[in-house]
Design a protein that fits this description.
192 residues, mainly beta
Length: 192
């Protein structure tokens, strides 16, 4: 008895909500009814704001947009790939320096195992709007606490990139595939 009432109610709601709209197979498969997704949401530490990685379908570009928590409205676009010819492949992921003045942007990502990958990395200065490619096909780059250096792994060894001097220093030299892995985990950790 109750299931008939619920079914009738659901049919009534469907006809009321979608009665004016023609549902086609094409509309179902082209994503018209797909829920909107959200990539790379990051809360800002120094403000009451957050960033989201957005894709503009019409412009075929990606942006890191800044939003306000209180109003949920967009405050600014920090970077847009349509203005950055160096980021032709888009933005795969990003992270901020501790003072939130620099963004480390991953591009041209290549998967290794389930979660691990290598990527090219760009450093973007929010104030000057300068984008510089600093690293090629490295793993796990991380800003130092003072934001002046970036530690990363490449070919099973550890390196440090000095942002001011624009130099790389190799920290370990004994890295060997499937034998000695410095600074990153092996595939077994990703499986566990």
């Amino acid at each position: 008895m109750y299931s008939k009432k619920i079914t009738a109610l659901l049919l009534f709601l469907c006809f009321t909500l979608f009665g004016q709209q023609k549902i086609t197979v094409e509309a179902i498969y082209n994503g018209e009814f797909r829920a909107k997704g959200m990539d790379e949401l990051k809360s800002m530490k120094n403000t009451n704001q957050y960033t989201v990685l957005n894709f503009d379908e019409t412009a075929k570009s990606m942006q890191i947009d800044l939003f306000d928590f209180a109003t949920l409205k967009k405050v600014a676009t920090l970077i847009d790939t349509k203005n950055q010819y160096k980021l032709l492949g888009g933005i795969d992921s990003y992270s901020f320096s501790s003072d939130e003045k620099m963004i480390l942007i991953a591009n041209n990502t290549h998967k290794i195992y389930r979660h691990s990958f290598t990527a090219d990395y760009f450093l973007y200065d929010i104030e000057t709007k300068e984008l510089t490619k600093i690293l090629e096909q490295v793993q796990e780059p991380t800003f130092s606490p003072d934001g002046k250096k970036i530690a990363y792994a490449k070919e099973n060894n550890l390196f440090i990139y000095d942002i001011t001097a624009k130099t790389n220093s190799q920290i370990t030299t004994d890295g060997m595939k499937n034998t000695i892995i410095n600074g990153i985990t092996d595939w077994v950790y990703e499986e566990e």
